[in-house]
Design goal:
The protein has 323 residues and is α/β, with parallel strands linked by helices. It is built from eleven helices and 15 strands. Helix 10 crosses helix 11. The longest helix has 24 residues. The termini are far apart. One of its GO terms (molecular function) is hydroxymethylbilane synthase activity.
């Protein structure tokens, strides 16, 4: 690696640049020079169409993948939840950074909005005032996973489309007549934009690999793979692999409300996952605890259990609705 400058491919959004800079700093700590190379993605240029309507897996990653395979860059840095479970041919995972918060966050307009959804005394209530008082709430998100879980709990909600980078989306919350919007905690916390008027949605399961950053490189680039693998966080890598195996088993993509979370406590791996219909009315869950040395196939087994318990019917309904 002597006298080599590693070219780090990144999108131009503040969050993407922050993530790429973390990787640059990790390489610098190994006395390896690195520079950022900015690549535009289709997901950045189309800020109107909801993510689930674009119909393209890897919408935020394929431009970087192409640049990597064309030797314009040496590594690419992604939010791992955006990466398709089947990576492009010729590209491999080199490192997963230690996971930040996996939680979703509700950014609200006014404290009365929290009362409407039963967030009282800094905790989420198990009842829904929205349903009891027939109150109507308007919230914004473009994630089918968030929409489905929110409607499962608060069916009397109007959902508005929310696209753009973190700064743009936060500004839209203030300038539109909404009660609030849903964000990934990691996304707004990493660039110090989490507003005071926000609360963690503790009951909402995250997207598989949410809060994790992945570094990918060309399959045949052993030197760069090794340099990046030095800062691979094994615990996070295991957790997100299990979650992505669950997603892969359910054959889910951006248009399927699939959620998963894996935690390692002592020598035990704890997994929670679910799939919902897009309207939130149907839900199949799975919860598992296994020994750490028996966790390799946990995501696949959990996915198969969900399919057997009715998840296959939900997937079929979603596919038929899209035809």
């Amino acid at each position: 690696m002597a006298n080599t400058i590693i070219r780090i491919g990144t999108r131009e959004s503040p969050l993407a640049v922050w993530q790429a800079t973390q990787v640059q700093n990790l390489l610098t700590s190994q006395n390896i020079q690195a520079e950022l190379v900015y690549i535009k993605s289709e997901g950045d240029t189309d800020l109107i169409t909801p993510l689930y309507a674009l119909g393209v897996q890897g919408i935020f990653t394929k431009a970087l993948d192409a640049a990597l395979l064309n030797n314009r860059i040496d590594i690419a840095v992604h939010s791992m939840k955006d990466v398709p479970v089947q990576m492009a041919e010729g590209i491999v995972q080199a490192a997963v950074l230690k996971r930040a918060s996996y939680k979703d966050v509700f950014v609200y307009k006014d404290k009365t909005d929290l009362e409407k959804i039963g967030y009282i005394n800094n905790a989420w209530s198990n009842y829904s005032p929205l349903t009891i008082h027939n109150a109507q709430l308007t919230i914004a998100t473009s994630s089918v996973r968030r929409i489905a879980q929110w409607l499962n709990r608060y069916p009397n909600t109007v959902i508005e489309n929310l696209r753009g980078n973190v700064n743009t989306r936060l500004n839209k919350v203030q300038t539109n007549n909404w009660n609030g919007a849903i964000f990934a905690a990691a996304g707004i916390e990493r660039i110090n934009l989490r507003p005071e008027n926000s609360v963690d949605i503790d009951w909402m399961l995250p997207a598989p690999a949410q809060g994790a950053i992945v570094v990918v490189c060309r399959k045949d680039d052993e030197a760069i793979f090794n340099a990046c693998n030095n800062f691979n966080d094994k615990a996070t890598a295991l957790c997100v692999k299990i979650e992505r195996d669950f997603l892969k088993t359910l054959m889910g993509g951006c248009s399927t409300p699939i959620s998963a979370l894996t935690k390692v406590e002592d020598n035990t791996v704890i997994f929670n996952g679910n799939i919902l219909s897009t309207d939130g009315k149907q839900k199949v869950e799975v919860n598992k605890r296994v020994a750490l040395n028996e966790a390799a196939a946990l995501g696949t087994l959990a996915g198969e259990e969900v399919l057997q318990n009715g998840g296959d019917k939900i997937i079929e309904q979603i596919r038929n609705a899209g035809k």
